[in-house]
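Problem 12. The chain below contains 290 residues. Write out its predicted structure in token notation.
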Amino acid sequence: MATQKPISIKSIFYTAVSLVWIFGLSAIGHIVMVLIEKYNPAIKWDFAWTCMIIGFLAIYSTRFMKQDGWQSFVGCLGGLGMWFAWEYSLMYAGHRMGVTYTWNGSYPEYRIMKWTFVMLFMVFTYLMYQESVRCNFIFFLRRKLKLMRGATATGKVSNYGPRTAFEYIMVTWTFYVLLMIAYDEQLFGPQSWFTYLIFFASFSVFFYLCYKLLGYDRFGANLRYAIPTVTILWNDVEILAKWGMLKEPWVHINWPIMGVIIAGFIISTYLIVKDLRRRKEGMIETKDVI
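Solution.
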């Protein structure tokens, strides 16, 4: 686990930019999918294949990058591309099998994704016993459940790209499945105590993770830690929309709000790339958050 530094103006800057970029990445992903579905649905399957290929190539390209910042930055993009392909594959499966929307508005691909929870649990079980995984939550489970027999993660990580991509996919997958289980009327339902618990827990944990994130002042670590931080807050965005208290701008094509999100993403991308270009090669941290 990384050793946190005192909070400074520099760490606040890196945290703010990382949060805006990861949030913008997720939001633009939604915007692109909605625009394709609304204006040119005929290209969505070709788009899915393109995303998978680009995602794979992005992750592969991190093999040749020496800075953990570049590895993490490109790894996030690769993870998003792979996630696009995963969602579209479920969308295609729903179309082939005739899966419809539920009365509470859950899309067919998410209804199918809900039933991948056993697969998700199997992958998570492996991660809990994998010594090289440095996720703080998994570290916590290892300690409390006494899962390890003395083996710990040591030494440098040579490439954070695949780790970051896998983290993006796993975190997104986990919380989508969690929300779909919460929305299921035969289990809990959108207005159930379980959904309210997820909402308030996510809201509370978000601020704690922001505080932890302020202890890092490099885009490599900040981007990786910002993934679960933003995704946990995204739970609240999804739940508020499900409750009818928030109109998602990418669903209702609200261009002024989407324009602000896109502008924030572009500016944060510029700041990240500018900072990474200024850093010397070989500055990979020996211990990190994930």
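Discussion. The chain has one domain: 9-145+158-277. Students who got a different answer should revisit the alignment rule from Section 12.3.
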